[in-house]
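Lab meeting, item 3. Inverse folding demo.
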């Protein structure tokens, strides 16, 4: 059973894709809290607790992040680069969830420190199976780093 205290950060600009993620979460029994960032800049502000996310009480650390690559502004590749360069945040598991099957994107993400790379299936039934696998591995099997309420703690 997934630990409901483990926040999942979803960085996804497409409302349609985010709704598919939420729907798949419901169908697979994922009850974890979810926070969505719609672009890379918002994700970096959330992760580095800047601007509207400065208060740790209202912007808890995620246990795992699902990251789209093709985002407006700062794209997912840059988000991953900033995250993995930070001593505190580099331990955050990042699952890239992208429509890109470009081998250069896949290699770059792994070189930068992505924990996993999943190509988004087009059909919802296939996507649902992907989310079931994601749930089984990332929420039911692995030990995730503890979420911390403080930036440096």
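The presenter then showed the designed sequence:
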């Amino acid at each position: 059973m997934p630990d409901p205290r483990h926040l999942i950060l979803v960085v996804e600009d497409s409302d349609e894709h985010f709704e598919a993620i939420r729907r798949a979460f419901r169908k697979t029994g994922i009850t974890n809290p979810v926070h969505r960032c719609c672009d890379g800049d918002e994700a970096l502000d959330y992760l580095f607790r800047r601007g509207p996310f400065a208060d740790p009480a209202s912007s808890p650390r995620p246990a795992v992040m699902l990251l789209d690559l093709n985002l407006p502004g700062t794209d997912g590749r840059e988000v991953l680069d900033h995250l993995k360069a930070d001593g505190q945040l580099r331990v955050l598991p990042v699952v890239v969830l992208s429509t890109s099957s470009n081998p250069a994107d896949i290699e770059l993400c792994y070189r930068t420190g992505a924990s996993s790379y999943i190509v988004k299936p087009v059909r919802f039934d296939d996507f649902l199976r992907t989310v079931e696998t994601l749930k089984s591995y990332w929420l039911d099997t692995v030990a995730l780093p503890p979420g911390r309420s403080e930036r440096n703690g």
